[in-house]
Amino acid sequence: MGDPDYAALATELWKQGFVVVEDMFSDALMDDYQSLILEHFGESPQYSHNDEFLSKAATEVIPWFPQQEGLASFDTVENDVRLQRLTQAILGDGWQSLYCMTMFSKRGTSGQAWHQDCTPENPAVFNMNRLIYSENISADIGGQVVVVPGSHLRGQISVGPVDEDLANQQVLTPQKGSLVMLHGHTWHRVLPVHGRYRVSTNYRCTPNGTPANITDVCVYRNMRYRFETNEVLEERV
Ligand SMILES: O=C(O)CCC(=O)C(=O)O
Ligand SMILES: [Fe+2]
Q: Which of the four pLDDT bands, split at 50, 70 and 90, describes residue 2?
């Protein structure tokens, strides 16, 4: 596709906490990414998280950082001028890439429970997710992304069941080549994966001056969790 309306997309992102851009990346590029991802994960990849995390967080995702292994193909999205302009329109001067993380979920797994990617106490300190989908998400396969519009302005996510439906939630079903920009304070989750497997790739970034470990502490409805040390920092009741 050509140039999106960067200013309009930025306005929507700041109002809703997310914005979807369809047909952002070509089928050929997405096919390339999908085959590299499947090659890496193979048939039955192992979880890197411990059992406590898997049971409490109801989150079954295996991360992979392909750029850190020198896979230059993953630079193509990173270097896409439209993606950079859109990021600039949203975050302003001095924004920085954080890392590119591919996430894999096997058939029959729970997806991801409601969460915020980082602590929301300071509205100016956050990560931005730039999610791309190298295959269609569909109701058949599951793995849709659920968001609460405007929740990036509502502070900490409410306490409660980790996967209940929330008022005003919106279900996103991103298609191959789509980009989803998602503010890290926006309340979001990923629905269970019924069919096959599910893949997404996230080019995380931050505004100028954000600590590099911003996504270390994730806020769920039942706890705060620190990934670096694999520990529950706080039970939420
Ligand atoms: O895989 C997705 O669609 C979203 C995953 C997520 O919660 C995130 O990237 O922060
Ligand atoms: Fe997230």
A: confident
